[in-house]
Amino acid sequence: MPAPDLTLLLDAARGAGEIAQRYWRQEPQVWEKDHGAGPVSEADLAVNDFLRDHLTGARPNHGWLSEESPDEPSRLDATSCFIVDPIDGTRAFIDGQQGFSHSLAVTTGDRVTAAVVHLPILGLTYAAVPDGPATLNGQPIHVREATLETADILAGRPVMEPGFWRDHQAPPFKRSFRPSLAWRLCLVAEGRFDATLSFRAAWEWDIAAGSLIAERAGARVTNRHGRAMQFNSPDARVDGIVIAAPALHAELRGAMVAPIRPV
């Protein structure tokens, strides 16, 4: 039987998907956020409102951290916190693509204790808790093994820049891309890709849920420095991500230039 917080997240994710589908390919209103933070649509806000009402209504003492809500410092004093991206992959959603997701996590302290990533159009629901397997639509999933020479890695173009790598060129892996960062972590978890990688700071709402799903599927999950991720932090960001099966993770870390500023 799923843990209570996981059951709550699963129910919320389904409701979020129903709301998102009302706007998908219906030309929702779209505008740009301040400071070049990217686009947001009326669907993002409608899903955010639903999730906040549904989740904090059930757990009023949990903190709240969402891409589409003003940050509330009180979350740092809460024992548990919801970390939510109402629509991860907003550009894909606006373009009518299928690969957007709802990313929902609960943290206790600085660790994720329940996680759901739901792709309503594709009918995919990934989930995990710390003491069970990662699942896709209720069935266990697991990472696959690869080497740097054979790996298919989900990442943006900047990871190929030579300055990030010890030999001044990226290793000979294949680079692929999907619009939702949360989904990228889950695709590694289910063994469809071998790793996901970013040298840029990642917002917690993009990766909190997927990080636990990937971990419970057998991946090593760290920031770019090889350290465990910590969530519900004041900055709400993680300094890069390296997520892969343990042997490939070690190869990737060994091939990377050590960052100048450790965290």
From TrEMBL:
Q: Does the keyword Nucleotide-binding apply?
A: no
Any one GO MF annotation of this record: metal ion binding
Asked if the keyword Magnesium belongs to this entry, the reply reads yes
Domain of life of the native organism: Bacteria
Cofactor(s) essential for the protein: Mg(2+)
The alphabetical list of record keywords is: Magnesium, Metal-binding
- For binding Mg(2+), which residues are annotated in this chain's numbering? E67, D85, I87, D88, D206
Report the transmembrane regions from the record: none
**Listed GO biological process terms:** inositol metabolic process; phosphatidylinositol phosphate biosynthetic process; signal transduction
Q: What family classification does the UniProt entry report for this protein? A: Belongs to the inositol monophosphatase superfamily.
Supply the name of the protein. Answer: 3'(2'),5'-bisphosphate nucleotidase CysQ
Q: Which organism is it from?
A: Paracoccus jeotgali
